[in-house]
Amino acid sequence: MRPPVDPSKIHRLLEGLGRRAKGPGRIYLVGGASALVEGWRGSTVDVDLKLDPEPAGIFEAIADLKKVLDVNIELAAPDHFLPELPDWRERSVFIERIGEVDFFHYDFRAQALAKLARGHQRDLADVRAMLDRGLVSQEELREAMEEVLPRLIRYPAIDAGSFEARVRMFLEESDG
Protein backbone atom coordinates (compact mmCIF):
# COMPACT_ATOMS: atom_id res chain seq x y z
CA MET A 1 0.00 0.00 0.00
CA ARG A 2 1.31 3.42 -0.97
CA PRO A 3 1.40 6.36 1.45
CA PRO A 4 -1.27 9.06 1.21
CA VAL A 5 -0.86 11.85 -1.31
CA ASP A 6 -0.50 15.34 0.17
CA PRO A 7 -0.73 18.77 -1.53
CA SER A 8 3.02 18.91 -2.15
CA LYS A 9 2.99 15.54 -3.89
CA ILE A 10 -0.03 16.42 -6.07
CA HIS A 11 1.76 19.56 -7.27
CA ARG A 12 4.91 17.56 -8.05
CA LEU A 13 2.75 15.07 -9.95
CA LEU A 14 1.11 17.78 -12.07
CA GLU A 15 4.49 19.35 -12.76
CA GLY A 16 5.90 15.96 -13.78
CA LEU A 17 2.96 15.11 -16.03
CA GLY A 18 3.09 18.50 -17.74
CA ARG A 19 6.84 18.39 -18.30
CA ARG A 20 6.99 14.76 -19.46
CA ALA A 21 4.04 14.84 -21.87
CA LYS A 22 5.20 14.93 -25.47
CA GLY A 23 2.30 16.93 -26.83
CA PRO A 24 -0.76 19.02 -25.99
CA GLY A 25 -3.76 17.74 -24.12
CA ARG A 26 -6.00 18.16 -21.12
CA ILE A 27 -5.91 16.42 -17.78
CA TYR A 28 -8.91 16.68 -15.48
CA LEU A 29 -8.48 16.18 -11.73
CA VAL A 30 -11.21 14.33 -9.89
CA GLY A 31 -12.11 13.65 -6.26
CA GLY A 32 -9.28 13.76 -3.75
CA ALA A 33 -6.95 15.36 -6.29
CA SER A 34 -9.35 18.31 -6.61
CA ALA A 35 -9.75 18.42 -2.82
CA LEU A 36 -5.98 18.70 -2.34
CA VAL A 37 -5.51 21.42 -4.94
CA GLU A 38 -8.47 23.42 -3.59
CA GLY A 39 -7.29 22.92 -0.02
CA TRP A 40 -10.20 21.30 1.78
CA ARG A 41 -8.35 18.04 2.40
CA GLY A 42 -4.82 17.37 3.57
CA SER A 43 -4.44 13.97 1.91
CA THR A 44 -5.98 11.42 -0.41
CA VAL A 45 -5.33 7.75 -1.08
CA ASP A 46 -5.10 7.98 -4.85
CA VAL A 47 -5.14 10.48 -7.69
CA ASP A 48 -8.05 10.15 -10.10
CA LEU A 49 -7.58 11.66 -13.55
CA LYS A 50 -9.41 11.93 -16.86
CA LEU A 51 -7.42 12.52 -20.04
CA ASP A 52 -9.37 14.28 -22.81
CA PRO A 53 -7.72 14.61 -25.23
CA GLU A 54 -4.85 12.56 -23.93
CA PRO A 55 -1.43 14.13 -24.35
CA ALA A 56 1.10 12.08 -26.31
CA GLY A 57 3.42 10.15 -24.03
CA ILE A 58 1.22 10.61 -20.97
CA PHE A 59 0.93 6.91 -20.13
CA GLU A 60 4.71 6.56 -19.98
CA ALA A 61 4.81 9.65 -17.75
CA ILE A 62 2.11 8.20 -15.47
CA ALA A 63 3.93 4.86 -15.16
CA ASP A 64 7.20 6.60 -14.31
CA LEU A 65 5.71 9.12 -11.86
CA LYS A 66 3.76 6.43 -10.02
CA LYS A 67 7.11 4.88 -9.10
CA VAL A 68 9.12 8.06 -8.56
CA LEU A 69 6.49 9.75 -6.36
CA ASP A 70 5.07 6.50 -4.88
CA VAL A 71 1.45 7.41 -5.72
CA ASN A 72 -1.63 5.53 -6.87
CA ILE A 73 -2.97 7.01 -10.11
CA GLU A 74 -6.28 5.86 -11.55
CA LEU A 75 -8.12 6.88 -14.69
CA ALA A 76 -11.53 7.51 -13.19
CA ALA A 77 -14.10 10.26 -13.65
CA PRO A 78 -17.75 10.89 -12.81
CA ASP A 79 -18.81 9.90 -16.34
CA HIS A 80 -17.62 6.36 -15.61
CA PHE A 81 -20.34 6.06 -12.94
CA LEU A 82 -23.11 8.46 -14.01
CA PRO A 83 -24.34 9.84 -17.33
CA GLU A 84 -22.09 12.55 -18.69
CA LEU A 85 -23.32 16.11 -18.24
CA PRO A 86 -23.38 17.62 -21.75
CA ASP A 87 -21.45 20.77 -20.82
CA TRP A 88 -18.94 19.22 -18.41
CA ARG A 89 -15.93 20.43 -20.42
CA GLU A 90 -17.10 24.05 -20.41
CA ARG A 91 -17.92 23.82 -16.70
CA SER A 92 -14.57 22.32 -15.73
CA VAL A 93 -12.36 24.78 -13.85
CA PHE A 94 -8.93 25.65 -15.24
CA ILE A 95 -6.07 25.13 -12.79
CA GLU A 96 -2.87 25.76 -14.74
CA ARG A 97 -0.88 25.02 -17.87
CA ILE A 98 2.39 23.12 -17.54
CA GLY A 99 4.29 22.53 -20.76
CA GLU A 100 1.62 21.85 -23.36
CA VAL A 101 -0.83 20.30 -20.89
CA ASP A 102 -3.83 22.15 -19.48
CA PHE A 103 -4.98 20.96 -16.06
CA PHE A 104 -8.60 21.35 -14.95
CA HIS A 105 -10.86 20.29 -12.12
CA TYR A 106 -13.50 18.04 -13.67
CA ASP A 107 -16.91 19.78 -13.52
CA PHE A 108 -17.71 20.09 -9.80
CA ARG A 109 -21.42 19.39 -10.41
CA ALA A 110 -20.56 15.99 -11.84
CA GLN A 111 -18.01 15.30 -9.11
CA ALA A 112 -20.58 16.13 -6.44
CA LEU A 113 -23.27 13.94 -7.99
CA ALA A 114 -20.88 10.98 -8.28
CA LYS A 115 -19.92 11.41 -4.63
CA LEU A 116 -23.57 11.62 -3.57
CA ALA A 117 -24.33 8.47 -5.57
CA ARG A 118 -21.60 6.64 -3.66
CA GLY A 119 -22.61 8.21 -0.36
CA HIS A 120 -19.58 7.51 1.85
CA GLN A 121 -18.99 9.91 4.73
CA ARG A 122 -15.84 11.36 3.16
CA ASP A 123 -17.74 11.85 -0.12
CA LEU A 124 -20.53 13.73 1.67
CA ALA A 125 -17.94 15.90 3.44
CA ASP A 126 -16.34 16.65 0.07
CA VAL A 127 -19.68 17.77 -1.39
CA ARG A 128 -20.27 20.00 1.65
CA ALA A 129 -16.83 21.53 1.07
CA MET A 130 -17.68 22.16 -2.60
CA LEU A 131 -20.89 23.93 -1.55
CA ASP A 132 -19.15 25.90 1.22
CA ARG A 133 -16.48 27.12 -1.21
CA GLY A 134 -19.01 28.08 -3.89
CA LEU A 135 -17.60 25.56 -6.37
CA VAL A 136 -21.13 24.31 -6.94
CA SER A 137 -24.53 25.54 -5.76
CA GLN A 138 -27.54 23.62 -4.54
CA GLU A 139 -29.49 24.79 -7.58
CA GLU A 140 -26.76 23.59 -9.94
CA LEU A 141 -26.80 20.18 -8.23
CA ARG A 142 -30.59 19.95 -8.54
CA GLU A 143 -30.45 20.85 -12.22
CA ALA A 144 -27.61 18.41 -12.91
CA MET A 145 -29.48 15.65 -11.08
CA GLU A 146 -32.56 16.31 -13.22
CA GLU A 147 -30.34 16.14 -16.30
CA VAL A 148 -28.93 12.69 -15.48
CA LEU A 149 -32.03 11.02 -13.97
CA PRO A 150 -33.69 9.98 -17.26
CA ARG A 151 -30.40 8.51 -18.51
CA LEU A 152 -29.67 6.40 -15.43
CA ILE A 153 -31.44 3.50 -17.16
CA ARG A 154 -28.07 2.89 -18.87
CA TYR A 155 -26.39 2.55 -15.45
CA PRO A 156 -27.99 -0.54 -13.88
CA ALA A 157 -25.81 -0.33 -10.75
CA ILE A 158 -27.65 2.86 -9.75
CA ASP A 159 -31.29 2.90 -8.77
CA ALA A 160 -32.67 6.22 -10.07
CA GLY A 161 -35.22 6.58 -7.27
CA SER A 162 -32.66 5.97 -4.53
CA PHE A 163 -30.18 8.31 -6.20
CA GLU A 164 -32.75 11.09 -6.48
CA ALA A 165 -33.83 10.62 -2.85
CA ARG A 166 -30.22 10.68 -1.64
CA VAL A 167 -29.43 13.90 -3.52
CA ARG A 168 -32.63 15.63 -2.39
CA MET A 169 -32.10 14.58 1.24
CA PHE A 170 -28.51 15.82 1.18
CA LEU A 171 -29.58 19.16 -0.28
CA GLU A 172 -32.36 19.56 2.31
CA GLU A 173 -29.95 18.79 5.15
CA SER A 174 -27.36 21.18 3.71
CA ASP A 175 -29.96 23.93 3.38
CA GLY A 176 -30.88 23.88 7.06
Strand ordering within the main sheet: 3-2-1-5-4
Quaternary state of this entry equals: single chain
* SS-based class: alpha/beta
As for the CATH topology of the largest domain, it is Beta Polymerase, domain 2
Which spans have pLDDT < 50 for at least 5 consecutive residues? none
Instruction: Classify the beta-strand content into a percent band.
Output: 15-25%
Question: How many strands, which pairing sense, and closed or not: the largest β-sheet?
Answer: 5 strands, mixed
Count of distinct strands: 5
Tally of individual helices: 8
* Helical content class: 40-55%
CATH architecture of the largest domain: 2-Layer Sandwich
Shape: globular
SSE order: HEHEHEHEEHHHH
Q: Could you give the distance between the termini?
A: 40 Å
Taking all residues together, what is the mean pLDDT? 97
| Rg, alpha carbons | 16 Å
Highest CATH level, the class of the largest domain: Alpha Beta
Tally of individual domains = 2
